[in-house]
Amino acid sequence: MTAAIVARVNSHNDIQNLAKYSPAPVINALCDKYHPLQTIADLQTIQEHFSEVKGLNLAWVGDANNVINDLATGCAKLGINVSLAVPKSVNVDKDIFGHVADLTKESGSSLKVTNTPSEALKNADIVVTDTWVSMGEESEKAEKLKKFAGFQITSDLLKSSGTSPDYVFMHCLPRHPEEVADDVFYSERHSLVFPEAQHRLHAAMAALEWLA
Length: 212
Hints:
With 212 residues, this protein is α/β, with parallel strands linked by helices. It has two domains: 1-32, no CATH class; 38-203, 3-Layer(aba) Sandwich (Rossmann fold). Helices cover 44% and strands 15% of the residues. It has nine helices and seven strands. It has helices spanning 12-21, 36-50, 66-78, 94-107, 117-121, 141-147, 155-161, 182-185, 193-211, and strands at residues 5-8, 26-30, 57-61, 81-85, 111-114, 126-129, 168-171. The protein has a five-stranded parallel β-sheet with strand order 5-4-3-6-7. Strand 1, helix 1 and strand 2 (26-30) form a beta-alpha-beta unit. The longest helix is centred in the C-terminal third of the chain and has 19 residues, at 193-211. The chain is globular, with a radius of gyration of 17 Å.
């Protein structure tokens, strides 16, 4: 009795089982491994701002989570170079980023993973971060804040890292002050956070229109 199922779940296995047994299309609205609708919205935001996306440099500073798993995949397909900075105690998903590396060879883009934010931010056109404490990790907040010391995105960090002077900043929300300083988050010149949030609506509508 439905044209489509939009599911926001904990485990990616739940999405896979829904897709296996549902006669209607299943859209992953978020799981522990992927966040595809967010990536569609993010790429729409980037395309709208820059027009030509191939060859842009995107820097991710933060956790190795579902958002960057999909965003790196989407960027690699479009020829956007990705530099990822995560703490030493945080590991990216080897299978996903192995696939991303393969995609970069096809598109001519590049992928770099480092533990130093300034390395990832050098020459970045697009700067992205996300919450350090994902859903279900609330009990780990104190430990995570220690892990991510020095990873807050600030104007000083961006300048000292050699980020492009015309960089844009993005965040999928909700945002916490420890992740990004106010002057970056609310910057009228650099922040695309609120257009990005609006594009989530259009991304979801487009996915439903295409699938259902």
